[in-house]
Specification:
alpha+beta, 3 helices
Length: about 190
């Protein structure tokens, strides 16, 4: 994930009460990110959200690095391109994910990600994009999980991890207790 998506890495996790987040810039060696992830994995029984960014909209910066906080109790990461949102120039600071989050997701009720109908409708709206949500209690939801890949207890947003030789972590579908990766981790995700 990191080799092909190195425009920033972010990790979100919880102790079951407080949602935490750490972001790494493009100069951070992968070994340091991996060590940090492994330390978190030992401390929590809950899913971990790990995102490796490739910039498609908005500049390369910590501000545009996933995951993002929708509110103090909910983090999200995204894989794909949200047409009509953000700026397509690297000079502009607005990513498609931040723009969608501010214009759409922050207007939803606080527990929207826990309602199956809302999650299904959101999946229809975003097409082939994928969203992962992790809250402070450890509840996780993946929108369009069927478009990703499950490998053990880790869900990947795409298959680029297979050729890179690194995988670890995991959450899978609506309400699952796993981790995520794919430019995201225990959810991995590659944008």
């Amino acid at each position: 994930c990191w080799t092909s998506n190195s425009d920033g890495t972010g990790i979100s996790w919880t102790d079951g009460q407080i949602l935490k987040m750490k972001k790494f810039d493009t100069d951070t060696p992968f070994d340091k990110i991996h060590k940090y992830y492994e330390e978190i994995r030992l401390k929590t029984e809950f899913p971990i959200l790990l995102h490796f960014r490739i910039a498609t909209h908005g500049g390369v910066s910590l501000k545009n690095t996933h995951p993002f906080m929708i509110n103090q109790n909910l983090a999200m990461a995204h894989n794909g391109v949200l047409s009509g949102f953000g700026s397509k120039t690297y000079n502009n600071e607005v990513s498609d994910t931040i723009d969608f989050m501010k214009k759409i997701l922050r207007k939803f009720p606080n527990t929207f990600y826990k309602h199956e109908g809302t999650v299904e409708a959101l999946g229809t709206i975003i097409g082939t994009n994928k969203f992962v949500f992790l809250d402070n209690t450890g509840f996780s939801t993946i929108v369009n999980a069927n478009l990703g890949i499950e490998d053990g207890d880790t869900w990947f947003s795409n298959n680029s991890f297979k050729s890179r030789g690194y995988r670890k972590g995991g959450s899978t579908t609506y309400g699952a207790n796993k981790s995520y990766c794919g430019g995201y981790s225990d959810y991995y995700d590659d944008d």
